[in-house]
Design brief:
about 300 residues, alpha/beta, Rossmann fold, 4-stranded antiparallel β-sheet, about 25% strand, disordered C terminus
Length: about 300
């Protein structure tokens, strides 16, 4: 298994910030769906301010990892641990994980007719910034919320009418992904998991979405895990660390050089280097083809 690249040296100031930063730790994670094991011992550590990318062929378990992190009920964690700054995420409901500082941008965002983008965000932002709030208690002041929302929409190049529309209802693919990044910007999580956010987007939309992610990461020291099939988004969101998920395990850890290697050689060299993982990968791909494909989303995922 490839060794993790050395983290760059830090200044005294950066070291002080590091001591105050949060850590997302995944250890020996095993996850099953309907009795079929998909993840078979994943180990991964992210710190705030770091950008990681996770790549792998179809059916390798990338989206399974994202849903398991967020607590989707169909994904059963059978072994291992997930902690955020020492807190046991596996003991939390999805909305509690969001309040703790975890965010998931969906590959297939769900439409919510009847709930406007602004109303949705005002409740979500209030609950994340005031985790102890009970339903019925005061929301973030409207004037402050509107000001911040307009600023974020301007930076994303989103028309102000966007806030009045029902969440993802009738949205194009690009609009749905911009709505996800708008939520990311407003919620300011400690960690953002981007599950194939570039899927279905043209190159201009990939650039705009990526610029939004980069702004949030820089301003709020958000740790980012980019899950993707393609190298193109990594031209805009530049990872310091890249991991290859294969056969339900992370088999290679490295830096940007791995992106170029995958671009030029694909995954053939991974299959040759890890024959046991390649066998597991074939079994998982066959099982994936037999299972009906459907978009998944957890109710209350945004700390509602």
């Amino acid at each position: 298994m490839g060794a993790m690249p050395m983290r760059p040296p830090t200044t005294e100031c950066q070291q002080g910030n590091r001591l105050m930063s949060k850590v997302l730790s995944i250890q020996n994670l095993h996850v099953s769906i309907e009795g079929k094991e998909i993840l078979r011992g994943v180990d991964l550590t992210l710190r705030q301010g770091e950008v990681h990318a996770l790549m792998g062929p179809n059916g390798s378990g990338k989206s399974t990892l994202s849903y398991a992190l967020m607590g989707h009920p169909r994904y059963e964690v059978t072994e291992g641990s997930i902690t955020l700054d020492g807190q046991d995420l596996l003991a939390m409901e999805p909305h509690e994980r969001a309040k703790a500082g975890l965010f998931l941008a969906f590959q297939y965002p769900t439409s919510i007719p009847g709930v406007s983008v602004a109303n949705f965000l005002r409740h979500a932002v209030t609950n994340v910034r005031n985790p102890g709030r009970k339903e019925g208690e005061d929301l973030i002041p409207m004037r402050d919320f509107r000001k911040e929302l307009r600023e974020q929409m301007d930076e994303l190049g989103v028309d102000q009418e966007f806030a009045r529309r029902y969440l993802n209802d009738g949205f194009s693919g690009g609009e749905k992904k911009r709505a996800e990044i708008l939520q990311l910007a407003m919620l300011r999580p400690a960690f953002a998991i981007l599950d194939e956010t570039d899927s279905g987007l043209d190159i201009d939309a990939v650039r705009i979405v990526s610029e939004g992610v980069n702004r949030v990461a820089e301003r709020h020291s958000t740790g980012v895990l980019v899950i993707t099939h393609y190298e193109r988004i990594l031209n805009y969101i530049k990872p310091q660390f890249l991991h290859i998920l294969f056969g339900g395990r992370i088999v290679e850890n490295g830096g940007p050089e791995l992106v170029k290697l995958l671009e030029s050689q694909g995954y053939d060299w991974v299959r040759e280097k890890y024959p046991e993982a390649a066998k597991d990968e074939e079994e998982m791909e066959a099982a994936l083809q037999q299972r009906p494909k459907q978009p998944l989303q957890v109710a209350g995922q945004r700390a509602s």
